[in-house]
Amino acid sequence: MATVEALVAGPITADTVIDQAAPSKRWGRLGLLVPAGLLLIIGFIVPLVIMLWYAFTDPSVGFGNFAWYLGDAVQQRILLRTFTTAVNVTVICLLLGYPYAYAMVAAGPKLRAVLTLLVLVPFWTSLMVRTFAWVILLQDHGPIQSLLATVGLGQIPLIRTNLGVVIGMSQVLLPFFVLPLYAVMTNIDRRLILASSSLGAGPITSFFRIWLPLSLPGVGAGSLIVFISSLGFYVTPALLGSPGNSLISQQIFTQVNGLLQWGRAGTMGVVLIVITLAILAILALVIGRSTSTIKGVR
Amino acid sequence: MRKPAARMWKGALWLFCALVALWLAAPSLIVIPLSLTDKPSFSFPPTGWSTRWYTNFFQDPSWVGALASSLQVGALVAVVATIAGTAAAAALTRSAFRGQQTVKAILLAPMIAPVIVVAVGLYALFLRTNLLGTTLGFVIAHSVLALPFVIIPVTASLNGFDRRLESAAAICGANRWTTFRQVTLPLVAPGVISGALFAFVTSFDEVVLSLFIQSPYLQTLPVKMYASVTRDTDPTIAAAATLILGLTTVLTLTTTFYIARRNRVR
């Protein structure tokens, strides 16, 4: 039984052997987890448990908050809007990010360094600074609106609209799409393309039959990160959107700050986390299955 | 027949990428000219120039105070998260135990958990424990978010590390502490340093948790900026944004060059 568990736990390394020989040292090593564990319990786990607790107990014990949430038409509209916003942002990141990541792989070393630097710029630029910049760019009579007016598109309202929120969020989240995709693409064996063209495939066939399927895990990882982050995004939608087209995160804020409805805020928090976990689980399943088919084909 | 078509495709791809790159990098830069406007408005592009918003920033105690709090909290978070994260990374790479993957997943969970939910829960907790608007509260909250950004690079450098060097040091008579200080630490230093940098930047940049755990007595710079955007049109915020942009750029570039140079020397 113990051997089975050891096999399940992973390959036996030199470490495992040492650890079995000296249990005290082993506990010492696990003790290294204590500072991080304490931080995580106080700053992450307890807050989440409190939210869960509120969802089921405030103002009264039971499923009252969930009944309210599922029965409220406004909340359903907001949840739907949150979903469509996240889908739109993910699609935009996919359309802009896929060619960009491809170019990063195809480029020579110097150009690749420049492209990498440009995708990393947003990482060290403060979220607050970038959102503020979008407030300026999208404002009424702002630079983008005047540009659109010169082109002849007239006064399209941008700030305090869902369109503005989607524009700002996709710029903020694009690096999170490009980087995992780039990591997957650099590991694709380029000789496979050569092999397919030597077998008579044109560049388009090679791309769709070889490159695209092999890059799909990166697309999955990137889309997942972008989609999940979009669902819970607060600052950018709060500053670029309006209360009239708010997302679930703004609703959580309002329930606590304006209405002191802790139970309802907790309920929405639970909904958000359950959705996030469900998406993660589905994707883990899909990726697991697709990689096993690829392995099977090989 | 195929060659000109291929060239056209390539040209189109590069043009497209140039536009995407512009879209990624340019928006943040507009805060720089805006901070030098001479009018108390956000109209862009500015029509006249002045440095009055910088004077305003450094003469207003609430802006300077916010900057000081941000720097202080950021430095403390860099220390706390780097120590806790490096220790955790060492435990994760150096020993095999049951539930290791689960522990790792939980430690990295703050990266993808919706921050707003954590923020409200933290607000409730800090309300009861009188930690609202305290440095300790800020350091705890920000360190949790910063932990994954330390654990990831440190784990990477520990994994790419030749363990026999430690055994060699032990054989030569070094005790565990000396081995750690003279062999392990210098070799994983690039990972630890980039972890510390990311921890600082994460804290310096954090808005959502900070909005909930702030008090009128302790506000960080992003909180002050958030309040300023929602309340009035005061270009002082553009001056603040430019200062943040400059500070984080200098920090990141210095660290990147330092690590690149170290790697080349070795």
From TrEMBL, chain A:
Cross-referenced Gene3D superfamilies: MetI-like
Main location: membrane
GO biological process, one term: transmembrane transport
Similarity comment text for this entry: Belongs to the binding-protein-dependent transport system permease family. CysTW subfamily.
Keyword Secreted part of the UniProt annotation: no
Pfam family, one: BPD_transp_1
Topology within the bilayer: Multi-pass membrane protein
Family annotation (SUPFAM superfamilies): MetI-like
Keyword tags: Cell membrane, Membrane, Transmembrane, Transmembrane helix, Transport
Name of this protein: Putative spermidine/putrescine transport system permease protein
Assigned GO CC terms: plasma membrane
CDD domains associated with the record: TM_PBP2
Subcellular location: Cell membrane
Presence of the UniProt keyword Glycoprotein in the record: no
InterPro entries associated with the record: MetI-like, MetI-like_sf
Parts of the chain that traverse the membrane: 30-56, 78-101, 113-137, 163-185, 218-241, 262-288
TrEMBL record, chain B:
Entry GO CC: plasma membrane
UniProt superkingdom: Bacteria
GO biological process: transmembrane transport
Keywords: Cell inner membrane, Cell membrane, Membrane, Transmembrane, Transmembrane helix, Transport
Stated name of the protein: Putative spermidine/putrescine transport system permease protein
Subcellular localization: Cell inner membrane; Cell membrane
Species lineage: Bacteria, Bacillati, Actinomycetota, Actinomycetes, Micrococcales
Cleaved signal peptide residues: none
Membrane topology value: Multi-pass membrane protein
Residues annotated as transmembrane: 67-93, 105-126, 138-161, 182-201, 237-260
